[in-house]
Amino acid sequence: MEKNKFIVIEGLDGCGKSTQIQRLAAALRTRGEKVHITAEPTNFETGAYLRRILAESQEKDMYLQAALFLADRLEHITHPESGIARYLKDGYTVICDRYYYSSFAYQGTASDIDWVMKINLDCAQMLTPDLCIFLDVNPATCKQRIDAVREKPELYEKSTSLMKNIRDNFLNVLGRLQKTQNIVIIDANKGLDDVEKEILKYV
Q1: Residue 47 among known ligand-binding residues
Q2: What's the pLDDT tens digit per position in 128-185?
Q3: Closest to 63 measured CA to CA, from 120, 125, 112
Q4: Lower CB density within 10 Å: C or N end of the chain?
Q5: What's 82's domain CATH number?
Q6: For residue 48, what is the enclosing H or E element?
Q7: Residue 33 falls within a domain, yes or no?
Q8: Which of 76-80, 111-115, 154-158, 192-196 has the lowest mean pLDDT?
Q9: pTM of the prediction?
């Protein structure tokens, strides 16, 4: 694998993203890659505000949320010391837990998906991932996993029906973008080892 690749892992909360990201990073490091793992929302000021909105289930306007996520994403990309662009320039393979696809799917539940896509995709500073992998897991399974580890569900984890709506949005926008972007949808209902092997095959 060539260096300086930008890989995004997407999926519903509870789909196993965190586990597979750690496994992928370990496999790439074994090959001699320098790997930087990052996530959205970020640890920057806007990201901290967004995480508070999600954790406290604050009912903020979806257009406002989408704009905040865009602002956080631009900081994530362009920060001179710890931005994605800086790590790519320094020869790291960057693996990101969520990216603009999540904005399309989540904020798209109660706003104009086309508008959310436009403000992100038409932005001159936006980076297009070299590969996006969507881990597709049954929403009911994701909800069960979340309920087992959280005392209180976050904003987008309140019901299986909401998570199904988000999954439908994901599949809609990923299908639209597959014509112009490198996007893979993986059945992640299988065992962890099988999912890891499939991810490595596409990477």
Answers
A1: no
A2: 999 999 999 888 888 888 777 776 766 666 678 888 989 999 999 999 999 999 999 9
A3: 112
A4: N
A5: 3.40.50.300
A6: helix 45-55
A7: yes
A8: 154-158
A9: 0.91
Q: Considering the domain boundaries, does residue 175 fall inside one?
A: yes
Strands (E), the chain: 6-11, 35-39, 93-97, 131-136, 183-187
β-pair type (35-39, 6-11): unpaired
Q: Going by C-beta distance under 8 Å and a sequence separation of 6 or more, which residues neighbour residue 93?
A: 1, 3, 4, 5, 6, 7, 28, 33, 34, 35, 36
Scored b (16 or more CB within 10 A) or e, 142-159 reads bbebbeeeeeebebbbee
- Does 16 show up as a binding residue in the annotation? yes
Domain count, the chain: 1
Maximum distance among all Cα pairs of the chain, rounded to whole angstroms: 45
Asked if residue 91 belongs to a known ligand binding site, the reply is no
15 is in an annotated binding site: yes
Query: Which of 177, 100, 175, 86 is closest to 136 using CA atoms?
Result: 175
Q: Does any domain span residue 12?
A: yes
12 known ligand binder: yes
In a domain, 1, yes or no: no
